[in-house]
Amino acid sequence: DIQMTQSPASLSASVGDRVTITCRASQNIGTYLNWYQQQPGKAPKLLIYVASSLKRGVPSGFRGSGSGTDFTLTINSLQPEDFATYYCQQTYTSPFTFGQGTSLDIE
Amino acid sequence: QVQLLQSGPGLVKPSQTLSLTCAISGDRVSSNSVGWNWIRQSPSRGLEWLGRTYYRSNWYTDYAESVKSRIIFNVDTANNSFSLRLNSLTPEDTAVYYCARDSSTMARLGFDYWGQGTRVAVSS
């Protein structure tokens, strides 16, 4: 199975800050990397697919980049609703594995 | 607008079978350009993909190795739904279970719609 490793595990920031979360795959997955946001008690929500494509309706402050094994999610100018847990997922091959998550909370 | 509505029990006894259903609106379970997934989430295992079923002139299913010997997916085209059956439950199967759609032929574009989640506890 492809292992997905996110860093950091947790992150504190303030409204208006820019933050970056990284995700590393244990093997080359091309650009088949997705990012999700999960609010407490809710299902994950797809933000970005194939590394850098923003899902329709997702604010433009979210940006994904990377290919191969190293990927980043950048959130520009944090809004109050952005404080949540973020997961990466590879859909290069099954099983479709997820990272362990990055918890973003208010500083 | 696609919506997935999950139903099923919140408490199951050890060694018994869990049955969950995901009812689809806004799409067809037999669409040949999407797939239907089950995922679970627990503090110890994180988000764990359990498997996928999809229609491409025939029905296909792909299960995660971790549950392959205990899991079955079914499709009900008349009710536009799909379901999960997981047998021989242990407390390690305690988790929130989600159904989700992927909108590409090989799930490459991620899971774009999710059910609301069903919190399942395995306990006597």
Brief characterization of the structure:
The complex is a heterodimer of chains A (107) and B (124). Chain A is mainly β and 107 residues long.
Descriptive account of the structure:
The complex is a heterodimer of chains A (107) and B (124). Chain A has no helices and 10 strands. Chain A is mostly beta strands. In chain A, strands 2-10-9-4-5-6 form a 6-stranded mixed beta sheet, with no helix packed on it. Chain B is mostly beta strands. Chain B has no helices and 11 strands. In chain B, strands 2, 4, 5, 6, 9, 10 and 11 form a 7-stranded mixed beta sheet that branches. Chain B has a 4-stranded antiparallel beta sheet with strand order 1-3-8-7, with no helix packed on it. In chain B, a hairpin with an 8-residue loop joins strand 9 (95-102) and strand 10. At the A-B interface, strand 5 of A face strand 5, strand 9 and strand 10 of B.
How is this fold's topology laid out?
The complex is a heterodimer of chains A (107) and B (124).
Chain A: E1 4-7, E2 10-13, E3 19-25, E4 33-38, E5 45-49, E6 53-54, E7 62-67, E8 70-75, E9 85-90, E10 102-106
Chain B: E1 3-7, E2 11-12, E3 18-25, E4 35-42, E5 46-55, E6 59-63, E7 71-76, E8 81-86, E9 95-102, E10 111-114, E11 118-122
